């Protein structure tokens, strides 16, 4: 079983790296989270029964571990300071190169809450609402609502980064 | 930046990150071999240690009230009669609470796994932590009851011993002296209990309080009942 696990995880390790990228600021945190997710996957592997896709199951374990990670997120978003409705969302301001876009995206995403990070990650990974709902346990309708809110929030946050 | 650009930026970035941190089978195996305990493991370990300590403490309290004190102190101890029902009640309460706690813990553990949907997983961790907190307060209550009973018995014995040596015996223990003794006893006992309780509570909150709050907040964020009406109509 260990061989099978190692093979399948090596093949799909990108999922864990992506989750770590979105949840961790430092290399040290990233290493810790990677190991913690890996251990949780190994411990839950015997209970995986092909009821969902392996990647869906892997996202679920990885995100559950990341969201409930004991380390306190040092950069809690200041929700009170964002007045979405009053801000002009000037998308045309953005005509930047990929590197700059990545920096802006990274900085904005780091200010989202744990749940928001998981939803935006799955959205960026082109997951359908149905699969996002399956991973998070919330309904597809609520995923849509959350996604709209996150998009607005990200626009505001990215605007402030320009 | 449009969201399609955002996706494209993310794809570039995440591919770079995956390539940069890619690990071979050997490295992954090594990480598994040197694994540290995860948060859930740590809470579970703490709970089991706590259960062991609590069980030992309960055994000590019950043995003490039944045999130890009489065996160790040669002079027979005569507790005031009102203390016997209190003693029996507190011991029964403690044992019943402990059994309830163990059953609840086993039930939670049986239904809890990290590959559950996020909401159920959060509820599982919260339930485990709340059970841990309940166990902690059970231990605090046992300690406080034990302190109150021991202190009252000690005070009673002390007064009895001092006055029985005086001519006239307990008749010298007038109402005013009794009230004064009760006042002094309470003046010492109450701050001691309050201090013990708040110190232990502070310790627990320092360890898990903020984490519990943060989990509750996360769970609240997943609560669909918080969805504004106008959004529901748009769906």
Commentary on this structure:
The complex is a heterodimer of chains A (162) and B (235). With 162 residues, chain A is mostly helical. Chain A has 2 domains: 2-67, RNA polymerase sigma factor, region 2, helix turn helix motif (Rna Polymerase Sigma Factor, Chain: A); 79-161, Winged helix-like DNA-binding domain superfamily/Winged helix DNA-binding domain (Arc Repressor Mutant, subunit A, Orthogonal Bundle), CATH 1.10.10. Helix content of chain A is 66%, strand content 0%. Chain A has 7 helices and no strands. Chain A has helices at residues 2-23, 27-44, 54-67, 98-109, 114-124, 129-136, 140-161. Chain A is globular, with a radius of gyration of 17 Å. Chain A starts with a helix and ends with a helix. Chain B has one domain (37-228). Chain B starts with a helix and ends with a helix. The radius of gyration of chain B is 28 Å and the shape is elongated. Chain B is an all-alpha fold. In chain B, helix 3 runs antiparallel to helix 4, helix 3 packs parallel to helix 5 (118-164) and helix 5 (118-164) packs antiparallel against helix 6. The model of chain B is unreliable at 226-235 (pLDDT under 50). Chains A and B meet through helix 1, helix 2, helix 3, helix 4 and helix 5 of A and helix 1, helix 2, helix 3, helix 5 and helix 6 of B.
| Number of spatially distinct domains of chain A | 2
Give me the strand/helix succession of chain A. Answer: HHHHHHH
Largest sheet of chain A: none
What is the fold-level CATH name, i.e. the topology of the largest domain in chain A? Arc Repressor Mutant, subunit A
């Amino acid at each position: 079983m260990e061989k099978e696990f190692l093979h399948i995880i090596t093949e799909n390790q990108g999922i864990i790296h992506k989750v770590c990228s979105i949840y961790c600021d430092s290399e040290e945190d990233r290493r810790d989270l990677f190991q913690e997710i890996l251990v949780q996957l190994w411990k839950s592997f015997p209970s995986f029964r092909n009821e969902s896709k392996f990647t869906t199951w892997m996202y679920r374990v990885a995100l559950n571990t990341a969201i409930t990670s004991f380390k306190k997120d040092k950069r809690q978003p200041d929700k009170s300071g964002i007045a979405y409705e009053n801000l002009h969302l000037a998308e045309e301001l953005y005509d930047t190169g990929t590197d700059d876009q990545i920096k802006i995206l990274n900085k904005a995403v780091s200010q989202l809450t744990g749940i928001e990070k998981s939803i935006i990650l799955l959205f960026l990974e082109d997951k359908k609402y149905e699969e996002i709902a399956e991973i998070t346990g919330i309904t597809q309708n609520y995923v849509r609502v959350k996604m709209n809110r996150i998009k607005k929030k990200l626009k505001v946050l990215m605007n402030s980064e320009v | 930046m449009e969201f399609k650009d955002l996706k494209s930026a993310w794809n570039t970035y995440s591919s770079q990150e995956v390539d940069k941190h890619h690990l071979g089978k050997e490295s992954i195996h090594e990480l598994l071999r040197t694994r540290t305990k995860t948060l859930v493991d740590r809470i579970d370990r703490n709970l089991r240690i706590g259960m062991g300590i609590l069980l030992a403490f309960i055994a000590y309290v019950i043995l003490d009230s039944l045999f130890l004190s009489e065996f160790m102190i040669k002079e027979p101890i005569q507790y005031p009669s009102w203390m016997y029902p209190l003693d029996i009640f507190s011991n029964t309460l403690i044992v019943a609470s402990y059994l309830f706690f163990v059953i609840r813990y086993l039930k939670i553990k049986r239904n809890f796994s990290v590959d559950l949907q996020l909401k159920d997983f959060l509820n599982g961790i919260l339930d485990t932590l709340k059970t841990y907190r309940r166990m902690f307060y059970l231990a605090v209550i046992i300690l406080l009851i034990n302190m109150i009973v021991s202190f009252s018995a000690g005070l009673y014995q002390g007064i009895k011993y001092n006055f029985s040596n005086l001519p006239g015996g307990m008749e010298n223990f007038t109402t005013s002296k009794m009230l004064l003794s009760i006042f002094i006893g309470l003046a010492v006992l109450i701050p001691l209990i309050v201090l013990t309780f708040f110190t232990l509570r502070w310790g627990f909150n320092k360890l898990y309080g903020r984490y519990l709050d943060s989990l509750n907040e996360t769970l609240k964020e997943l609560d669909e009942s918080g969805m504004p009406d106008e959004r529901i109509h748009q769906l």
